[in-house]
Design a protein that fits this description.
The protein is α/β, with parallel strands linked by helices and 522 residues long. The protein folds into 3 domains: 164 residues, D-Maltodextrin-Binding Protein, domain 2 (3-Layer(aba) Sandwich); 102 residues, 3-Layer(aba) Sandwich (D-Maltodextrin-Binding Protein, domain 2); 182 residues, Lysozyme. 41% of the residues lie in helices and 11% in strands. It has 19 helices and 14 strands. The strands form 4 sheets. Strands 4-1-5-14-6 form a 5-stranded mixed beta sheet, sandwiched between helices. Strands 10-9-11-8-12 form a 5-stranded mixed beta sheet. Strand 9, helix 5 and strand 10 form a beta-alpha-beta unit. Helix 11 packs parallel to helix 14 and helix 16 packs across helix 17. The radius of gyration is 24 Å and the shape is globular.
């Protein structure tokens, strides 16, 4: 509900697009479509058009043997595209944890940055071994310190590779089709087939499981991880091993899979460096240590790997069900609101779905009305004459959200600026400021949503609200509101195209739609 007075994470999880300055390569595999066949066909048509566009871009091949980055003034990173580490933002440039960190490192060292796309970790290791790239990235798993004793057939890490310190952790998971049998352990899978994507770095855990449980059949495939999850979701495959990161980003896109149990311990995601450049590895380790200390890495992980529990799959199912039938008539209005206010249209659509499930006649018991659930007082401030007119309601709400963002301190960066503004949209700017002051008192960062969301629920406790300027507030509501909007936004980012106004449509510089996930450094 809008109270009285976007880090566009474009995660195309099923065959995600490549940034425009990389060399695209075809992805193998042919998963069965999900149940929403007409919807999927439309998505595939869009993806095919974008892939064709990216094929028109050309990358200058790297030299046969590279010199050190400081010699050429350039850092060359070979990266496996994926929906967390490296993917295209709305303008086609690279974003993601690895992309953002690499651009930050390059900027700090006065280097140009150039990315080359690779389909598999094997390709990355080959380029590093041939000294055709400085650094490899894209969800690469640091080899475990000690291989499992039950997995003697696991090969060692590729030669000519140095590993940086870890960036984040994942764990390998067994997933299953939700309409099938949920295994509690390996003993429940006797005679069953478990599928996995070969070459992703999970071989030690898989080999250990194979050695300990010969009664289980195994099937290695060469498809994108998202395609494997899709096949489990639609029932083509009963069981598969995937990473926890892959399962997390797919959970609200492929609704038919569930997690059974982890098959091993946590593994570190790291960068690989050609052994010719040990000094570079040392510089990267120092950089990684610093971004861990100052919170930069934690903010990037929070930005790109949302781990909320408030967004249930039933919500994602309702959203996906309504997208083919309801969204087409609302999409032009959301586009118009983006042009007029600079608020990304898919974020507005996510807010609208959270508020009313896209029902333009919705009315709550508290008197808020319309598709964006705006109060009468806010409507008067915004000059809205008819709250049941979806065009007035959506554009008015977009202006309100833009104004809330503008009232936050300039030092607050995206995406926190957007998440905090959404909290103010729900609970009011005054209560948000009370929460930010409380966060500061508790030695938390009042400019980070991840910290402010910890203290907002405290505004419902007398010990805390009695000292707040505006007093009592149901602070848990904006936390749930923002988490659910972010969940809907994830789905819309994965399935809907960004809106780019035609050239010649003039908007003021303050009204341009800045991506929520703009690279941290250029």
């Amino acid at each position: 509900m809008a109270a009285p007075h976007g880090t566009d994470r474009l995660r195309r999880r099923d065959g995600y697009n490549r940034p425009r300055h990389t060399v695209p390569r075809p992805l193998s595999g042919n998963p069965r479509p999900m149940r929403h066949l007409p919807y999927i066909l439309a998505v595939l048509a869009i993806a095919t058009g974008i892939a064709l566009y990216f094929h028109l871009a050309h990358e200058v091949p790297p030299p046969l043997v590279l010199g050190a980055p400081e010699e050429a003034g350039e850092l060359l990173m070979v990266v496996r595209p994926g929906p967390i580490d490296y993917f295209p933002g709305p303008d086609g440039t690279a974003v993601g944890i690895d992309a953002d960190l690499a651009m930050m490192f390059a900027a700090e060292n006065h280097l140009r940055i150039r990315f080359i796309a690779a389909d598999t970790p094997t390709e990355i290791f080959t380029m590093l071994g041939n000294v055709a790239a400085h650094v490899g990235a894209g969800g690469l798993l640091h080899p475990p310190a000690a291989m499992p004793a039950s997995a003697p057939e696991v090969t060692a890490a590729p030669p000519a590779v140095l590993w940086t310190a870890g960036l984040r952790t994942i764990e390998p998971l067994l997933i299953y089709n939700g309409e099938g049998f949920k295994p509690a352990n390996w003993g429940d899978l006797e005679g069953e087939t478990v599928t996995y994507v070969e070459g992703l770095g999970l071989e030690p855990e898989i080999a250990a499981a194979r050695a300990l449980h010969p009664e289980v059949r195994w099937n290695a495939v060469s498809v994108p991880p998202a395609a494997l999850i899709s096949q489990v979701s639609d029932g083509t495959i009963s069981y598969a091993v995937v990473s926890s990161a892959g399962a997390a980003v797919a959970r609200n896109i492929y609704l038919g899979f569930e997690v059974a149990f982890p098959i091993g311990g946590k593994r570190e995601v790291a960068w690989a460096v050609s052994e010719r450049f040990p000094a570079l590895r040392g510089e990267l380790d120092r950089f990684i240590a610093r971004v861990k200390r100052d919170g930069t890495l934690a903010r990037l992980i929070e930005r790109y790997v949302q781990n909320d529990t408030g967004f249930r799959r039933i919500d994602a199912g309702a959203l996906i069900d309504r997208m083919p039938s309801v969204l087409p008539r609302l999409r032009p209005i959301f586009h118009d609101a983006q042009v007029k206010t600079g608020i990304e249209w898919r974020l507005l659509a996510a807010v609208a779905f959270q508020e009313s499930q896209w029902d333009q006649a919705a009315q709550s018991e508290t008197g808020v009305r319309g598709i964006m659930q705006i109060t009468e007082d806010t409507a008067r401030l915004l000059g809205i004459n008819d709250l049941l007119d979806p065009a007035q309601n959506i554009v008015g709400a977009a202006r309100y959200l833009r104004d809330l963002k503008s009232k936050l301190p300039d030092r607050i960066h995206e995406p926190d600026r957007t998440w905090l503004a959404l909290a103010a949209y729900n609970i009011g700017l005054g209560h948000l400021e009370d929460a930010r002051i409380l966060a500061q008192k508790q030695k938390l960062n009042p400019d980070l949503w991840s910290d402010v969301k910890k203290v907002l629920p405290l505004l419902a406790i007398p010990e805390y609200y009695e000292a707040a300027k505006l007093g009592y507030a149901r602070g848990g509501m904006p936390v749930a509101f923002v988490d659910r909007v972010r969940g809907y936004y994830d789905v819309l980012l994965a399935q809907e195209q960004p809106h780019k106004p035609r050239l010649g449509f003039s908007v003021g510089s303050s009204d341009t739609a800045a991506p929520l996930a703009a690279p941290a450094a250029k």
